[in-house]
Amino acid sequence: MLGDRELLILQTIIDDFITTAKPIGSRALSKKEGINLSAATIRNVMADLEEMGLLVKTHSSSGRVPSEKGYRYYVDHVISPSLKEKELHLMEDIIQGNMLEMEQLVQLSAEVLSELTNYTAVILGPDEMNATLKQIQIVRLSEQSAVAILVTNTGHVEHRLFTLPFGIEITELEKMVNILNDRLIGIPIMELQYRLQSEVYTLMQQHLQHHELIYDHISSVLQYENTGKLYVGGQSNMMRQPEFNDIDKIYQFYTMLEDEEEMIKLLKTDHDGLNITIGNENKVDAIKQFSLITTSYKMNGNQFGTIALLGPTRMEYRKVITLLQALSTEMTDVLFRGKWK
Amino acid sequence: MLGDRELLILQTIIDDFITTAKPIGSRALSKKEGINLSAATIRNVMADLEEMGLLVKTHSSSGRVPSEKGYRYYVDHVISPSLKEKELHLMEDIIQGNMLEMEQLVQLSAEVLSELTNYTAVILGPDEMNATLKQIQIVRLSEQSAVAILVTNTGHVEHRLFTLPFGIEITELEKMVNILNDRLIGIPIMELQYRLQSEVYTLMQQHLQHHELIYDHISSVLQYENTGKLYVGGQSNMMRQPEFNDIDKIYQFYTMLEDEEEMIKLLKTDHDGLNITIGNENKVDAIKQFSLITTSYKMNGNQFGTIALLGPTRMEYRKVITLLQALSTEMTDVLFRGKWK
DNA sequence: TATTAGCACTCGTTAGAGAAGAGTGCTAAC
DNA sequence: GTTAGCACTCTTCTCTAACGAGTGCTAATA
Questions:
Q1: Are the CB atoms for A109 and A100 separated by under 8 Å?
Q2: CA-to-CA distance for B226 and B124, rounded, in angstroms?
Q3: CA–CA separation, A11 vs A19, rounded Å?
Q4: What is the Cα Rg of chain B in Å?
Q5: Closest residue in chain A to residue B153, using alpha carbons only
Q6: CA distance B229 to B231
Q7: B212-to-A230, B209, B215 alpha-carbon distances in Å
Q8: Domains of chain B: residue spans and CATH
Q9: Strands A304-312 and B133-140, how do they pair?
Q10: What are the residue ranges in chain A where pLDDT is below 50?
Q11: Among partner residues A143, A151, A235, which is closest to B139 by beta-carbon distance?
């Protein structure tokens, strides 16, 4: 455990580094408000902190910079959430102020979050793993084309275009929709295809003329991607960070963001609450230079979505944590209690 | 008009610069295949071309670099589409090979295009200005919430969540849907709201108990954003271009891409065919350092979408033009003829 | 005993000076 | 009309020196 003085020095160094991104030396530190120690004393303390692995030097005679372990200590022991009333209210107003579709809400949230923090926000839409089918409908567009529409109990709508077998009758389409609705409503989305195969197929055989032609189409319509969708806000913010003044780093960052699958894997979670990973604590190579802060929001039906913020390890943890927590409850509020009950 | 020799020199310089991004001098040029002139002669020709404004020097004793006017001349008079069979077939296979939703098709196209060119592809989805309503449906989710689904004649599906007035009956909802379908099918999407107000409202008053409560909700459901959606592929490609080795330039580029409205304005077009704007020919400041090549695709119902490719002025025009034209017909083919008839 | 002042030393950054190299324009010869 | 030769220009690279911010250590101080 650190003493008061060591804590003060550590905190001051990190706070300073978070805003300036430059190493700070003992002399500069001694002049800071709230610190009434000479440079030499500070040097001793700094040496101690370095020995503990909380600070590092960029070279043998440079000022100190927080290590990842330092940030970890800072996050775990030093900071107490600072409620910046203004920003919180701003966010609340924006999120609550609009009557929004889930998708728009999530996109908007990502933008607001990145705007307020100057980092990059990534939000993973809720996966619909546990959603069940509410209704299936088919709208015929022309002689040979129709669009199938699935609605889940969560209000999610999925639609898919498909071609119709030549010469199929309207009545037959209707029959099929009836069969599907009769048998599939209430079934979890994930199981639809299986159910179609095991239960509905024989029914179709009995009642439909063109069943073999239709079956494949319907089957592909019911294929459901179970992954949530990604919403990104403020990608370009990362370029304003001095540690990413290097094209290669930026390039890596963007190619990582472009790899949706990888990102989804990274963000997917089923546990509540805030989570912070700093630099190399991350298991995925691509973000070992970043800090990732995630939290989740919940919708009715127990589906989780993830809100994440990506920034340099030198992050304004204090502010970011408050904002993320607030956004999490905010979103859960709107999605869960708001219009869903 | 340029003479044969001048044309050859210009073409060679531009071709070289397109691949290397470095100025080329007379001596290096004289050694190139197909050029049997001494360095001195080439210098004379180069001086002439510079006087005409087709070439520029980066400094007084540097090699020459094509000017924007030079590219313009090159595009207009020099290049003839080169059919790279391999790439074209590859693209064809990918686009035609999958049975896709319009949205997926467009996203995939953007990715393929950027992949094949190493530039950034931007595709503007068709605006649904002229689409008409095919069907409207309401699916009740719970006591107080429902989702409204609009299907257009083009197969586009729009859905919106809304809250239900307290205590409303199923039968009443059904009645309303019937009224809406009866009165609004076939009406252009853009007019829906107006029609609702002018025609349907009185009907609702006559037949529905809760009409005043429902009206507002329905009205907001029918609010339709008429702008197409943006699909971007290969954003990070731009960073691989040597002229964008500067964080500031990259930053500008990305903030521009993030500004959807501006991009849509930039890309929106209602005219057929290929269009090339080079550097400062562009009216929008943000892309004065780029070349923009656009073409359009068509869907049934005469809606246009735009396919665009953003790259440095030093662009592989030849290849890019062929690919874009091919993709344009490809997409029109799939969307128009394929399953839509 | 804890703190501080002093000092030698380290290392990154910056500026300047050459040297090298690629390229040009011009002139004169072919 | 084409080409070889040459002086000149400008960028780029490398090397060096000076500077300064910061450190660790030692000795003096409260």
A1: no
A2: 12
A3: 13
A4: 27
A5: A141
A6: 7
A7: 38, 8, 5
A8: 4-78 (1.10.10.10), 85-127+228-335 (3.30.450.40), 129-221 (3.30.390.60)
A9: unpaired
A10: 339-341
A11: A151
B110 touches B231 (CB < 8 A): yes
Q: Rounded to the nearest 5°, which phi and psi values hold at A141? A: -100, -40
3-state secondary structure of B175: helix
Picking from A141, A234, A240, the nearest residue to B155 by CB comes out as A141
Contact B304, B337 (CB under 8 A): no
Task: Name the nucleotide nearest B40; use CA and C1'.
Answer: D3
Using the C1' atom of nucleotide D11, identify the protein residue whose alpha carbon is closest.
B62
Instruction: Give the CA-to-C1' distance from B141 to D12 in angstroms.
Output: 70
Chain B residues within 8 A of A170 when measuring between CB atoms:
none
- Residue A254 is predicted with a pLDDT of 94
* CB-CB neighbours of A98 under 10 Å: 12
Query: Of A120, A133, A141, which to mutate for an interface test with B (greatest number of B Cβ within 10 Å)?
Result: A141
Residue B340 binned pLDDT confidence (cut-offs 50, 70, 90): very low
Sign for the CA dihedral angle at B201, B207, B212, B215 comes to negative
Rounded distance, CA A12 to CA A30, Å?
10
Phi, psi of A118 (to 5 degrees): 65, 20
Across the range B77-97, mean pLDDT stands at 80
Residue B98 confidence (pLDDT): 67
B291 strand-pairing partners: B278, B311
Return positions of chain C under 7 A from a protein CB. Answer: 3-6, 9-12, 22-27
Would you list which residues of chain A are within 8 Å, Cβ to Cβ, of chain B?
Answer: 99, 101-102, 134-135, 137, 139, 141-145, 147, 149, 151, 153-155, 157, 159-163, 220, 234-236, 239-240, 245, 247, 250-251, 254-255, 258, 339-341
Model confidence band, residue B315 (pLDDT cutoffs 50, 70, 90): very high
Asked if residue A46 lies in contact with residue A55, where contact means CB atoms within 8 angstroms, the answer is yes
At B192-225, the pLDDT tens digits run 889 998 988 888 888 887 787 778 878 887 876 6
Shortest CA distance to B267 belongs to which of B282, B254, B248, B245?
Answer: B282
CA separation for the pair B341, B335 (Å, rounded): 9
Distance of CA B313 to the CA centre of its chain: 18
Partner residue opposite B145 with nearest CB, options A145, A236, A340: A340
Which of B99, B147, B341 shows the shortest C-beta gap to A155? B147
pLDDT band at B341 (very low <50, low <70, confident <90, very high): very low
- Residue B284 tokens, joined: 């929008």
pLDDT tens readout for residues B32-60: 988 999 999 999 999 999 999 999 999 99
CA distance A274 to A295: 5
Q: Give the minimum alpha-carbon distance from A69 to chain B in angstroms, rounded to a whole number.
A: 30
| Minimum distance, in Å, between the CA of residue B84 and any CA atom of chain A | 27
Reduced to 3 states (helix: H, G, I; strand: E, B; else coil), residue B155 is coil
Q: CA–C1' span, A35 to D26, in Å? A: 25
Q: How far is B26 from chain A (nearest CA, A)?
A: 32
User: Number of A:B CB contacts under 8 A?
Assistant: 100
Q: Pick from B340, B330, B278: which is nearest to B307 by CA?
A: B330
* Cα distance between residue A203 and residue A210, in whole Å: 12
Residue with tokens 């295009």: B113
Q: Determine the distance in angstroms separating the CA of A96 from the nearest CA of chain B, rounded to an integer.
A: 15
State how far the Cα of B104 lies from the Cα of B111, in Å rounded to an integer: 11
Helix (H, G, I), strand (E, B) or coil at A78: helix
